[in-house]
Amino acid sequence: MSKMTLEELRKLREAKKQEAAQRDTEGKDTLVIVGMGTCGIAAGAKDVVDALLDELKKVGNENVIIRQAGCMGLCHVEPTVEVRSPGIPNTIYGNVDAEVARKIVRQHIVDGRLVNKHVYDKPAADIIEQ
Ligand code: FES
Questions:
Q1: Is 101 domain-assigned?
Q2: For 84, which of 5, 30, 43, 49 is 20 to 30 Å away at the CA?
Q3: How remote is the CA of residue 40 from the centroid of ligand 1, in Å?
Q4: Does any ligand 1 atom lie closer than 6 A to the CB of residue 96?
């Protein structure tokens, strides 16, 4: 196993700090939950988490908490991502890949518009909290 240079270690520490900050809840109002049960992982949920983290970094949005859940009971549409964001109904997306994850960040979280083709579930208009 090769040794890491001091510079590589610093970069790794910085990357891990940013990852940890993404899980810190203070002052954040958007929650993204990724289904990471065995079927979610098998379907590519890890790539989805990586794409979400990367795209959030690109758009400079530090107001989002990323959580990993276990089984969401939605094997047939894994990977699944639930987004709870102010001003837009809680939404569960299905069949999410890295590209869709990036769209969720830019379209749903930044612009407040649903990524229609991948909406699996959202509350009916009469039960949406005001
Ligand atoms: S085992 Fe697939 S969603 Fe639970």
A1: yes
A2: 43
A3: 7
A4: no
Residue 58 belongs to domain spanning: 27-124
Q: What is the CATH number of the domain that holds 117?
A: 3.40.30.10
From 33, 36, 41, 71, the mutation candidate for ligand 1 (largest count of ligand atoms within 8 A of CB) is: 71
Task: State both tokens at 29.
Answer: 């109002």
Residue 90 included in any domain: yes
pLDDT in tens, 87-129: 888 999 999 999 999 999 999 999 999 999 999 987 666 655 5
Of 39-48, 62-71, 103-112, least confident by mean pLDDT is 62-71
As for how many domains the chain has, the answer is 1
Q: Is residue 6 part of a domain?
A: no
